[in-house]
Amino acid sequence: MPTASANIGVVGLAVMGSNLARNLASREGNTVAVLNRSRAKTDELVALHPEAGFVPTFSYEEFAASLQKPRTAIIMVKAGLGTDAVIDELVRVFEPGDIIVDGGNAYFPDTIRREQAVRETGINFVGAGISGGEEGALLGPSIMPGGSDESWVTLGPILTSIAAVAEGEPCVTHVGHGGAGHFVKMVHNGIEYADMQLIAEAYDLIRRGTGKTPAEIAEVFAEWNTGELESYLIEITAEVLRQIDAETGKPLVDVIVDQAGAKGTGAWTVQTALALGVPVSGIAEATFARSLSSHPEQRAVAAHLPGPEGEFAVDDADAFIEDVRLALYASKIVAYSQGFDEIRAGAVEYGWTIDLGAVSKIWRAGCIIRAQFLNRIAEAYAGEPDLPALLTAPYFAEALARGQAAWRRVVVAAAQAGIPAPAFSSSLSYYDGIRAERLPAALVQGQRDFFGAHTYRRIDKDGTFHTLWSGDRTEIPAVDTH
Ligand code: 6PG
């Protein structure tokens, strides 16, 4: 058996796991034990990176023996049944006070269940969202851990040592207890879906409205990346649009099949929001847009359905592009506002204390949605921690006021040209809905009361009312059902 020389261990050495292990090993004070289901991966990692000083182990017993107490292990396996199997093995060889961290994209109810089950053994279980893809895992991800305060004492310094840094602050915080970390990571991914879809709609509108090539549009995005839209996703969009396919010489984006994949985190965000009653319409439309794209059989038969006559061509390309930029920024504000609403509602539902300002700060670097914009969100929550809706914060209200006319022009242009812009238009509808003095929800309440006696409230007195709708009365009494 090895001596207990490692302060942290990683189980699962696929790309994310091995990169995270290398990141850990590269930081002062860390010695990393590694374990993988197949021996070959461990041997390969250790041979390729002698500088890391890994402690290779080949059984759970060896792995546990190589770790100092409290033992701390990060599981980096594909979310699902594999995670449960690894947890069972670790619980078998660990002792009370030790810490098991799941760094995968687990569904937060699974994390809640696992945390409760593992806690019975006296071992700590922490679900930690880790964002930033392969490069982030290696160089510095944004990390969203949940779990107990006790585990954070040991885990905090280790995770801080590997996290990305934004303006001198590490992109990791103890997000909240239980499944809070994976909940926040789930919403991060939902926002990621909305951000990506909005960018895709902006590209499509510019391409079809101005006739610019992907390479020319790449320059537009590169320019946008120097202003208020500066973000990782805008930056990589320019790179993707610039790429030429080596085989055909065409823009790569024209060679890629237009059916977007999804591993499920966007759908979880929407399902959870539906259950919580939080309208994350931008995220939902982004998720549905991927689904729509991925039904080629329906798209093939629907392709003959009529659209508007004539070609779509804007008169002033520069003015249109600026409108699209403003529409993108306004829609992005809505998507983030909705995402933060969902985190707040989740915290209430599950009894977590989540500091929304702290969440926005740890998303400023390392993660996929990292953006200049997150600084503005952090400022908004610093100014008003209980801000009821992010989009009402002064900075965002001003940006929406500045962009709303352009936003409307873009949505109108898209509708008239027959170009789908579900995320742009649903975000605008949300904006108009939330700022409306009066909504037709009153009529919906009337309908509900008519067919199901579901009752309604009145604007002029307290209580719950039901109207006797039947009969030929001209004056219908409202009966207080209390
Ligand atoms: C991240 C990413 C990461 C992964 C997504 C992709 O934060 O690093 O979100 O978790 O790339 O799960 O999700 P889809 O395959 O569903 O697009």
UniProtKB/TrEMBL annotation:
Gene3D superfamilies registered for this protein in UniProt: 6-Phosphogluconate Dehydrogenase, domain 3, N-(1-d-carboxylethyl)-l-norvaline Dehydrogenase, domain 2, NAD(P)-binding Rossmann-like Domain
GO terms under biological process: D-gluconate metabolic process; pentose-phosphate shunt
Catalysed transformations (reactions): 6-phospho-D-gluconate + NADP(+) = D-ribulose 5-phosphate + CO2 + NADPH
Active site (record annotation): K185, E192
UniProt domain 6-phosphogluconate dehydrogenase C-terminal: residue ranges: 181-470
Binding site for substrate: N105, S131, G132, G133, H188, N189, Y193, K263, R290, R448, H454
Positions bound to NADP(+): G12, L13, A14, V15, M16, G17, N36, R37, S38, V77, K78, A79, N105
InterPro entries: 6-PGluconate_DH-like_C_sf, 6PGD_dom2, 6PGDH_C, 6PGDH_Gnd/GntZ, 6PGDH_NADP-bd, NAD(P)-bd_dom_sf, Pgluconate_DH
Pfam families with a match to the protein in the record: 6PGD, NAD_binding_2
Top-level taxon of the source organism: Bacteria
Key word Metal-binding present: no
Record keywords: Gluconate utilization, NADP, Oxidoreductase, Pentose shunt
Pathways involved: Carbohydrate degradation; pentose phosphate pathway; D-ribulose 5-phosphate from D-glucose 6-phosphate (oxidative stage): step 3/3
Alphabetized GO MF terms: NADP binding; phosphogluconate dehydrogenase (decarboxylating) activity
Known EC number: 1.1.1.44
Keyword Metal-binding: no
Similarity section: Belongs to the 6-phosphogluconate dehydrogenase family.
Oligomer status and interactors: Homodimer.
Job of this protein: Catalyzes the oxidative decarboxylation of 6-phosphogluconate to ribulose 5-phosphate and CO(2), with concomitant reduction of NADP to NADPH.
Name this protein carries in UniProt: 6-phosphogluconate dehydrogenase, decarboxylating
Organism: Microbacterium esteraromaticum
